[in-house]
Amino acid sequence: MTCGWIDIPPVRVTGTVPDPSVFGVIRRGSTVETSSLGIPGGTWIGLGLLTPLYPGGALVATDLFGDPGSLPAPLAADYAVITATQPDCTACTGSVCPAVAAEVSVSHAGVVVHSEVLVPGAESRYSDPADRSGISVTFVGGQASSRLCPDTPPTMSGPQPVSLFLIHVDSPASVPAGPLHPGERPGFLVVTSFPLGGIVYLDGDPAGTTFCSIPDLAPDTYEIRIEKDGYQVWTDDVTVNPGKYSRVNARLQPLYGSLRISTFPPGAEISIDGIYEGDSPLVIDDLNPGVHAISVSLPGYQTREATATVRAGQTSAATLRLSHGSPGDMLYSSPRYNW
């Protein structure tokens, strides 16, 4: 799937800024991006200051206020920031919990250059010695998903967590020269994947690792290929338009599945397809899809033989009861999604 900007008639929007520091950066006439919870006049959960990469170039963000995941424009100087908040599982309300910390990962030109865990109010900085650009990330505070807590029901639903970050990018010492050909305005491409960490190829050439931003592209149609160990190769074509930014969101399909085995009593030796894997309870990852032979043995109990079907991207579960005098019974075997 690819996304980009479209022109619309001017519309007046109102709302409450996510942080008062906005007024020290954004002025009347600034070009901005905003995101909200869909309530007219409510609080914006994200606000970004946009500037062209160079006169006539694609727009990039130099300052972000709010939840960076809600704002689509790429950061200036080819930076990208990925955040993940950690919940206080003792104080959850429905689907959200207070965030006790945030994991922050900064990439530059498609390469992760800095990672840090921030508590509320803490700031992280990175400076690139080559181009003398820099970025600062402050975690003001916010929420995390209660699904990260061990006792949360898997069916829990409700509002999505929202957090407040302040991000500022210092421009490099030199800026791009501009379009590749006279009169041609380049575009900007952002590539992300689920899960992250896929290697991105643009027309066969390495271009970075997701989350990946690729600036200064001549308007054209490009082939995007994403490779990640344990997942199918993902390919698609994307059209880059002059002076605009496009986004590619790839959902990678796993090649392998997992098998969770439990026994009554526990502690039995588990072999899969004749290879010893460990003692129950046990989860075996990276299994090829298909039917696998299970052998379970425990001193004083009869060895139990069974089969289980593994599906790509799922965790199959098998529970077996061992018996002293007769073959054990398989209580159940079921696939479970592993997303």
Order of helices and strands: EEEEEEEEEEEEEEEEEEEEEEEEE
Q: Percent of residues in helical segments? A: under 10%
Number of distinct beta strands: 25
The number of helical runs is 0
Return the average pLDDT rounded to an integer: 82
Number of domains: 3
Tell me the strand percentage band. Answer: over 45%
Detail the poorly predicted runs. Answer: 326-339
Q: What is the gyration radius calculated from CA atoms?
A: 25 Å
Largest beta sheet, briefly?
Answer: 9 strands, antiparallel
Q: What general outline do the C-alpha atoms trace?
A: elongated
Q: Class by helix and strand content?
A: mainly beta
Distance N to C terminus: 20 Å
Structure description:
Strands 2, 3, 4, 5, 6, 7, 8, 9 and 10 form a 9-stranded antiparallel β-sheet that branches. The chain has a 4-stranded mixed β-sheet with strand order 1-17-11-14, with no helix packed on it. It has a 4-stranded antiparallel β-sheet with strand order 13-12-15-16, with no helix packed on it. The two termini are 20 Å apart. It contains no helices and 25 strands. It is elongated and about 85 Å long. It has 3 domains: 2-170, no CATH class; 189-251, Immunoglobulin-like (Sandwich); 257-337, Immunoglobulin-like. The chain has 339 residues and is mostly beta strands. It has strands spanning 2-4, 31-36, 44-52, 59-66, 79-87, 96-108, 111-118, 123-127, 134-145, 163-170, 187-194, 199-202, 205-209, 212-217, 220-227, 234-240, 245-251, 257-264, 269-272, 275-279, 282-287, 290-297, 304-310, 314-321, 329-337.
